[in-house]
Amino acid sequence: MKKLLSLVLLLGLPPTIIAAADLSLPASRGVVSLPEGFEYIPKQGDDSIVGQFKKSTAEIDFDFGPMAGVYVDTMMKHWKADETVSVVRNSTTTIAGHSIKILVYSQGELKGAIVSWPDCLGNFYCKYRDEGELADFFTVALSFRPNKETPEQVAAPNP
What we know:
By secondary structure, the protein is an alpha+beta fold. The protein has helices at 2-10, 71-79, 131-141, 151-155; strands at 21-24, 30-34, 39-42, 49-55, 58-64, 85-95, 98-107, 110-117, 122-127, 145-146. It contains 4 helices and 10 strands. Strands 3-4-5-9-8-7-6 form a 7-stranded antiparallel sheet, sandwiched between helices. The longest helix has 11 residues, at 131-141. 34% of the residues are buried. The model is unreliable at 1-19 and 153-159 (pLDDT under 50).
């Protein structure tokens, strides 16, 4: 099933998300669906809300804040002249009215993926070892359901 989901995503077909549990992200950013066996690990960010979902060797990181949501664009500019990076997929799609950017890449033995939610000021990213880890990544990153408030409202300090 995981390989099928990965193949569906790489071909650009609409994904079918199968997950075991929903988890609310910190600071009311939204909700993600976590595949069975993943645990949430809070992290400390300087100017953003960061954290990680982990299961065995699989790690999925997220970053939400005023400077987030542009990781795909930033990496594409950075890698433009880097012949060691091979872009497997660079695309834009819409989920629930939100335009998101998807990047899957390899650099030697390293394989990674990034999903940026520009209008939600957030990114999900991972390094993956096999198709199953990539499918888990997409299950989490594409299941994100943002809070109905704008990122600016969520980031505003409470009076």
